[in-house]
Amino acid sequence: MTIAVIRFGGSNCDRDAVQALESIGVDAELVWHEDGLPAEVEGIVLPGGFSYGDYLRAGAMAARSPIMDEVRAAADDGTPVLGICNGAQIGSESSLTPGAFTTNESARFQCEHVHLRVENADTPWTAAYEEGDVIELPIAHGEGRFEVDDDRLEQLEADDRIVFRYCDAEGNVTPEANPNGSKHSVAGVTGDRGDHVAVLMPHPERATLEDLGNTDGAGVLEGFRA
Ligand SMILES: NC(=O)CC[C@H](N)C(=O)O
């Protein structure tokens, strides 16, 4: 199985994603966006970083790279796609997933560890966990506040499309445990094409290697094996 980790100008978590995937035994390769998707790709990661310097809006310019037409077509065909942080912003900017990620309530770049509650364990990205599990992952973003109109959010909730919510260490979803002001504390959501497409703002690839002292994120990447 080969997972394509797409590198845009300014991506900076692309090699971390490859290393994290390989650490759990999933083959991964870096793909420069101008080169297009390799023929035999079995999964796609949109990695974190600062594509195009976050100009206009984070993810807005990468979303307009021609490779994103190929990513959408692959997603239509059932290829798993995971967007992480800047990749989540690219995912929402390219209509793979609903809503938008916009400037943190603090108006600052935030780099910290957060707790997440698994809201729906019935997706490839959360099947390694139980519903209600609390995991810890790092965040590092300036534009991570999930925003979506009320009607759409109600529908996402009704359809069980919220995969992770920010919470405290005990799993309580509170305003204090919401690091960026995301609506309904949403940290990750599945795509309109099905739950084989998902994005999340926290970084599972930074919490997968034993050496980093936290492997809570490995289960998310296990989704490529599902
Ligand atoms: N770590 C990242 O992927 C950063 C995302 C984006 N550049 C932001 O600051 O919001």
From TrEMBL:
Pathway: Purine metabolism; IMP biosynthesis via de novo pathway; 5-amino-1-(5-phospho-D-ribosyl)imidazole from N(2)-formyl-N(1)-(5-phospho-D-ribosyl)glycinamide: step 1/2. Part of the phosphoribosylformylglycinamidine synthase complex involved in the purines biosynthetic pathway. Catalyzes the ATP-dependent conversion of formylglycinamide ribonucleotide (FGAR) and glutamine to yield formylglycinamidine ribonucleotide (FGAM) and glutamate. The FGAM synthase complex is composed of three subunits. PurQ produces an ammonia molecule by converting glutamine to glutamate. PurL transfers the ammonia molecule to FGAR to form FGAM in an ATP-dependent manner. InterPro entries: Class_I_gatase-like, PRibForGlyAmidine_synth_PurQ. Coiled coil: none annotated. It is found in: Cytoplasm. It comes from Halapricum salinum. Part of the FGAM synthase complex composed of 1 PurL, 1 PurQ and 2 PurS subunits. The gene is purQ. Gene3D superfamilies: 3.40.50.880. This is Phosphoribosylformylglycinamidine synthase subunit PurQ. Its EC number is 6.3.5.3, 3.5.1.2. Pfam families: GATase_5. The active site is at C85, H203, E205.
